[in-house]
Amino acid sequence: MVAWSAGLLLYRLAPAPQVLIAHMGGPFWAKKNEGAWSIPKGEFDPDSEGALDAAHREFREELGVEPPDVDWAELGTFSSSSGKKVVVFVGDGAGFTASDFTYGTFEMEWPPRSGRTASFPEVDRAEWTDLDAARDALVKGQRPAIDALAAALQELPGS
After folding, report:
1. pLDDT tens digits for 54-109?
2. CB 72 within 8 Å of CB 89
3. Is 127 within 8 Å of 96 (Cβ atoms)?
4. Which neighbouring-strand residues pair with 7?
5. Cα separation, 78 vs 63, whole angstroms
6. What is the DSSP string of the chain?
7. Is the pLDDT of residue 48 over 90?
8. How many alpha carbons lie under 13 Å from residue 68 in its C-beta half-sphere?
9. Where in the chain are the domains?
10. Residue 159 pLDDT more than 70?
11. What confidence score (pLDDT) does residue 24 get?
12. For residues 45 and 128, what is the distance between their CA atoms, to the nearest angstrom?
């Protein structure tokens, strides 16, 4: 069975195109940078929830703030090496300030095989970054979303 995720990819055009991405939290990602960032997203069941509704819910859960009230466009569905499908929506986040986040948490056994449970943030920071840096920072399966956004931005009037 295919696992589905949905996420919101905010972009802004000035001074140069940038996107808002989030560094994954928890001990596995703590000392990693390249390939350790993600579009704010999460899993959903397409039989019981729409992808855009799920993307909004996950943005709130991961970052602790409401997504901006902008027009959202479906950028595409991208596949990870595990087979998970990620539906990505884009919106102009020019007026969105990347601050005052209250990151959602998850629990896991830590240290491994210790029998103890620890709580960690789902993401530990989120920031605006240019498209080239985002392409390097994102997990491999989400990098094509940056290419799709760059292509879509090239089609805007005045580009």
Report:
1. 999 999 999 999 999 999 999 999 998 888 999 999 999 999 988 889 999 999 99
2. yes
3. no
4. 41, 88
5. 22
6. ---EEEEEEEEE-SSS-EEEEEEE-STTTTT--TT-EE-SEEEE-TTTS-HHHHHHHHHHHHHSSPPPS---EEEEEEE-TTS-EEEEEEEE-TT---------EEEEESSTTSS-EEEEESEEEEEEEEHHHHHHHB-GGGHHHHHHHHHHHHTSTT-
7. yes
8. 18
9. 4-154
10. no
11. 95
12. 29
Contact predicate 61/42, CB 8 Å: yes
Q: 149, 9 in Cβ contact below 8 A?
A: yes
CA–CA dist 37, 14 (Å, integer): 22
Domain 4-154 adopts which CATH fold? Answer: Nucleoside Triphosphate Pyrophosphohydrolase (3.90.79)
**Contacts for 3 with CB less than 8 Å, ≥ 6 apart:** 43, 82, 83, 84, 85
Cβ neighbours for 88, distance < 8 A, ≥ 6 positions apart: 6, 7, 8, 9, 39, 41, 74, 75, 76, 77, 78, 142, 145, 148
